[in-house]
Amino acid sequence: MYSRQLPLNFGIKMNELPMKYIFRLLLGLVLCLVWQVDNFAQVFPGDADNNGRVENFDVLYTGFAYGEIGPARLGGPAQDTESFISVMWEAMFPTGQNFIFADADGNGAVDFADLLTISTNYGEEHSTVTTTVFQEGIDGLDPSVEFDRSAIPSIITENSTLEIPLILGSPDQPILDINGVAFSITYDAELIADLQLTLDPLWMGGDGEVFLLQSHLDNNPESAGQLDVAMTRLGNNPVTSFGRIGTLSIIIEDDLIELLPDNVDRLPIAISVVGVGAVDGNFNQIPVVQDSLHLNVIHPAAISDVIDKENNIQVKIFPNPASEVINITSSVSLEGISIHSLSGQSLFSLPLDRIKKLKLSIDFLPPGPVLLEFKTLFGPRFKKLIISE
Hints:
The protein is mainly β. The protein contains 4 helices and 17 strands.
């Protein structure tokens, strides 16, 4: 039988290839590297949903993945620059996103430092931004987020301070198995000097396993104020809740004269809860009904004129100005009287038993203008009083 022994080295040596083949081979390698760079994902620290921007919804992703581990990224932790992914994690969000995007610092674990990175890099954009859209709830069918209107004072003037609870869910419509919620509050920054929301972590469980975020958006036009907030459980550990999720603190601007157009004695202010995103323990969306609030800010000099235009009920006080005692007469029964400073501070309150005449001592009030609020069956009525020295 004939046999032939093949040489052990039967490959083609590089130096035996024509130059044109070597060039084509090198070009192919370069194209492969370019393809790898373009097609392998990159992580921008804090952009957990990988939509091109670090925002409050990233808190929901990072909170859901909290405690998970996977391959660390090469090159050490990155603060505010993209890092390439060599190996994806096994774990995936139900949305199809890989858990590696929640590992902001690349150390191979989703932990509290990754949540803090969202705050540090908040608002940063690193590529084409894809707007996150959550399904809005249907009124009467889904739970809602609402301003507690019972806390709104009767008169709001310049420099007034308001404390308005924000309610999310009710005993009849609680938020079932919620793992995280994020939303924005928009307002007119020309009329509101400051707006903050103090979130209540107890709304999402009293075990301390909650992360809160609050950030004002700085790239909006000057007149368009926006406060972004988020609250998440640490890990996939949902709860059922309802009630006061936080308290909104609002300070009205202290000088409205230049903002009031001619022949206008009040300014409407719209405050809205928008972009509500909530997820449950399976990272499914929870539809939530949004809310808007309209406040009427009245300039102190126009209070009396506004009151006279709004009602025909006659409430008279005399003398005015006064220093010790005033007489009050009304065309309808009075159920109570309150005295406020023009900034909205309560100075005095007295319940009444449906009387139409009253003599009231005011010698305890400091000199200056005050606002008298009279409670009637037809709603509140107001009068301005000058306390003389």
